Amino acid sequence: MNKSLDPRVNRLDLPQGELTPKVPLDQFGTFEVFVQLKEGKGYRHEGSVHAPNIDMAFLFAKEQFSRRLMCAGIFVAETRNVFVTGFTEDKDSIYNHISDDFPEDGEIENYEVFHLNKRGKQHEHIGSVPSKNHQHALAQAKGEFIDGPPVFNIWVIKTADILFTEEEDMIMWNTLHEKKFRDASDYKAADKIKAFKERQQ
Amino acid sequence: MNTLAVKELLYKMADDQLILGHRNSEWTGFGPLLEEDIAFSSMAQDKVGQSQALYQLLHELGEAEPDTVAFTRNADQFHNSQLVELPNGEYDFSLIRHFLFDTAEALRFEMLTQSSFEPLAKLAKKIQGELRYHTMHANIWIKQLGSATEESIGRLQKSLDEAMPYALGLFENSEFESDLISSGVFAGEEELKSKWLEQVEKIIDQTQLTLPDVLTLTPKTGGRAGIHTEHLQPLLDEMSEVFRIDPTAEW
Q1: Among chain A residues, CA nearest to B41
Q2: What is the mean pLDDT of each run of 10 residues along chain A (201 residues)?
């Protein structure tokens, strides 16, 4: 096959005719990060990190999502282990569209359930249910939450697929409240510029 | 309590943290991946913050202001180990140094939570959480790359062999060693070194790396007495550039 005039295309190392397996992208998988702002408060989805494994995802998540403000705990789960429903809006709760049926396969273990209570906001942890599989967990959550305020989207994660902060590691955030210097607002840049301009006049 | 002995202890700890904090901050913007760049930079910032807290304790014992102490001394007035002043090299060396140093640092502060010098015991307790993350970070990286590919194992091994004699220099005995031990300020470099070796071995044993036999190595000492490699002065010149131009500058 002809070489491309664009060196970036040549660097892609495209297959040369024979049938070959597609090469995976040279990048890490993603992990979803959940943060607890204060002890006793619920965990909330904050974003995702790239990492080669779940331990490193935890390391990265700690500095990515809790280097400012407040944090009491973090947990991470591989993105592919997060099971996601469809979306609804307005007064229509997604629970109205969830089937009561579920497959019977699987042993009973815990699953964590997350609600999206406002479009555009983060998913929040609402509790765990012992279930046989993700669909079962969803069906059980339905019984409990269908009559509550509308929920627009639900995530279900098997508890065993989550890496939680160890009890003894919770001290990692002890000095966080003293690190105001990590916040742009702490430098009061606008005030300094204003004062500077006033001095110029 | 022998104040000179306490000051000597505080100076070497603070200088280690300031210099390594500055070295590690040189990775900011150049880390191997975005997430790691931020994590490593945050830890560098923690180290500088910890050194400031120690300089503050020194100030309370009659030494100059933390900024003056940090920015106006020359290399021969610094008491850091030579390990922390070495250039970053590639990421393998920086990680190995981070692992060897932070393991010792976390154990040192753990011992100091029992110090009879109360302000130091209080500080040691306060920063335990930060150090917990630093050692967790180091251990996970070393375990990951120490058992990954031929290249990663080879690079880490080479850096470990290079860094080890310098790491042993961290435990250079002070002339006040027996004072510090008998007054209960600090249980001493020898005790720290044996705890450190045990912990370093525990992590290295979970990888395909081999720990050099420390009995055959000559520790690179001298740093505590102000004897440094040629790498320290250029670092100090760069670190104190703004302060030397305008000591009243705020940023």
Answers
A1: A63
A2: 76 75 81 93 94 94 88 94 92 92 92 94 94 94 90 96 92 89 85 91 83
- Our count of domains for chain A comes to 1
Whether residue A117 is contained in a domain is answered as yes
8 Å CB contact between B113 and B127: no
User: The tokens of B203 are what?
Assistant: 């992590």
Domain residue limits at A32:
28-176
ipTM of the complex: 0.88
Quick one: which of B23, B41, B97 has its CA closest to A179?
B41
Sequence spans of domains, chain B: 3-245
At A131, is the secondary structure helix, strand, or coil? strand
Q: Do A51 and B45 touch (CB under 8 A)?
A: no
What residues does A73 pair with on adjacent strands? A36
Name every chain A residue with its beta carbon within 8 A of the beta carbon of B50.
none
Chain A residues closer than 8 Å to B137 by CB: 59
> Which of B144, B172, B164, B125 is CA-nearest to residue B15?
B172
Q: What is the pTM of this model?
A: 0.89
For residue A189, tell me if it sits in a domain: no
CATH 1.20.1260.10 assigned to domain B3-245? The reply is: yes
